[in-house]
Write a structure and sequence with these properties.
single chain, TIM Barrel, 8-stranded parallel β-sheet, 3-stranded antiparallel β-sheet, 15 helices, 20% strand
Length: 377
C-alpha cells in the first residue's frame, strides 16, 4: 500500500493521509501546481521549493510533442530535465488531444490527432501513453481516458464509460510489462452527470485495481452544483484506503468544500493563469490588481500571507509593474497565488489534524467571496 489514511474528520468527510512515492512522501490533502511544459508558468523549481511545494503536475501531450521523448530520454527522465527532485504527476494528455488538436479521430484503438504545433499526425493508444509516461519517469501517472464533454447525451456518456474502462484495462496490462520505475498508476472515473453511470464507472475502475482513483469529467463546462453532484455520486464507490484525486479543480472555495467531501488531491492552472491577468487570491476573495483603486494601496496582496511577495511589495507597486508591461509583475502575482494555494492546503491539513476542519471550512467559506473585491474588501 502506498497510501496510509491517518485520520478522518469527525464532522465532515475530510481526510488526513500519507502518500508514498518514489520521490518522497506527501501529506494529503495536497495541491499540485500545474507545470504543463515542464515548468509552472513564470516560476522555477527553486521558487516552488521555496514555497513548500512537494509536487508538480506536467502534461504528457505537450511534452511528447515538444521537446519530444528522445530529448527527455537523453536527460534520463523528466525529473532530471526540469531539475526537480520531488514528486511529479503526469496526466495522460487525453484532454489536450480532445481540446487542442486540429483534427482528431477517436476509436476503440485510441485517438489519432494532428499536432496543434506543426500539424504532424500522431496516434495515442492506451499502450503508447503508458510507454511515454514510463520514459518521463513521473511518480504518478494517468491512463488515457475518454472524457465526455458537457453537455452530453446519455448515449455519449455511456460510450465514454465503456471506452474508459476498456482503455483502463489495456493501460494496466501495458504498464505491467514496462520497466519498473516505482510509478503509481491511477484509474479515472467518468460518467458525466448521470448518477448510475458514475456508479458503474467507479465499480468497473476500482474492480480493475489501481494505486489511486481520480474523478474525471468535471470542470468541463458544467455548473459548480453539478460538479459537486458528480463528486457525491462517485465518492461512495471509492475505496477508503486509496488516494482520491479531483482532476482540474479549482477555485479556493471549491477546494475547501471538496476536502470536506473526502478528496485528497487537487490541481488547477488557475493560480498562474489568473496571476498572468493581474488577479490575486486572498483569504477574503480575489482582487484585480490592475484596477485603478489599487494605485496608491500600500498594503500587501493579502495581509494574512507570509510569502516573499506579500512581505516585500505593495499592491500599488505590483499594479505599476503590470501596467508598465514588466514581466516581474506577472511573475510576482503568480508566485503569490501558487503560494496561497499551497498554504491553504497546509492550513487545511493542520485543521484536520487538530480536529477543527469543520470550523475552518465554515469560517473560510463565510469570509471568501468569488466576485472580485474592491480596495475595502
Amino acid at each position: 500500500m502506498n497510501f496510509q489514511l491517518l485520520k478522518t474528520d469527525h464532522k465532515t468527510k475530510a481526510r488526513l493521509g500519507i502518500l508514498t512515492t518514489a520521490h518522497g512522501k506527501l501529506e494529503t490533502p495536497f495541491f499540485m501546481p500545474v507545470g504543463t511544459n515542464a515548468t509552472v508558468k513564470g516560476l522555477s523549481s527553486l521558487d516552488l521549493k521555496e514555497m513548500g511545494s512537494g509536487i508538480v503536475l506536467s502534461n504528457t501531450y505537450h511534452l511528447y510533442l515538444r521537446p519530444g521523448m528522445e530529448v527527455i530520454k537523453h536527460y534520463g527522465g523528466l525529473h532530471e530535465f526540469m531539475n526537480w527532485d520531488r514528486v511529479i504527476l503526469t496526466d495522460s494528455g487525453g484532454y489536450q488531444v480532445f481540446s487542442l488538436s486540429k483534427l482528431r479521430k477517436m476509436s476503440d484503438q485510441g485517438v489519432e490527432f494532428q499536432s496543434h504545433i506543426d500539424g504532424s499526425r500522431h496516434l495515442f493508444t492506451p499502450e503508447k501513453v503508458m510507454e511515454i509516461e514510463n520514459v518521463l519517469g513521473s511518480d504518478m501517472i494517468m491512463p488515457l481516458d475518454d472524457c465526455a464533454p458537457f453537455p452530453c447525451d446519455r448515449e455519449m456518456a455511456e460510450e465514454s464509460v465503456r471506452r474508459t474502462t476498456q482503455w483502463a484495462m489495456r493501460s494496466k496490462e501495458a504498464f505491467a510489462g514496462l520497466p519498473d520505475r516505482g510509478q503509481l498508476l491511477f484509474g479515472i472515473i467518468q460518467g458525466s452527470t448521470y448518477a448510475d453511470l458514475r456508479e458503474l464507472s467507479a465499480r468497473q475502475i476500482t474492480g480493475i485495481g489501481f494505486s489511486g482513483y481520480a474523478i474525471g469529467g468535471v470542470s468541463v463546462g458544467e455548473s459548480v452544483p453539478l460538479m459537486f453532484t458528480a463528486i457525491d455520486q462517485t465518492m461512495p464507490y471509492l475505496p477508503e484506503n486509496y488516494p482520491r484525486y479531483l482532476m482540474g479543480i479549482g477555485l479556493p472555495d471549491q477546494i475547501v468544500r471538496a476536502v470536506g467531501e473526502g478528496i485528497d488531491m487537487f490541481d488547477t492552472v488557475i493560480p498562474t493563469r489568473y496571476g498572468r491577468h493581474g488577479s490575486a487570491f486572498t483569504r477574503k476573495g480575489r482582487i484585480i490588481i490592475l484596477n485603478a483603486e489599487f494605485t496608491k494601496d500600500l498594503r500587501p496582496l493579502d495581509e494574512q500571507c507570509g510569502c516573499q511577495v506579500c512581505q516585500n511589495f505593495s499592491r500599488g507597486y505590483l499594479r505599476h509593474l503590470i501596467k508598465a508591461g514588466e514581466i516581474l509583475g506577472l511573475r510576482l502575482v503568480s508566485y503569490h497565488n501558487v503560494h496561497f494555494y499551497i498554504q491553504l492546503l497546509v492550513d487545511i491539513r493542520k485543521a484536520i489534524k487538530a480536529g477543527s476542519f469543520a470550523e475552518f471550512q465554515k469560517d473560510f467559506l463565510a469570509a471568501y467571496r468569488n466576485e472580485p473585491l474592491n480596495t475595502d474588501g
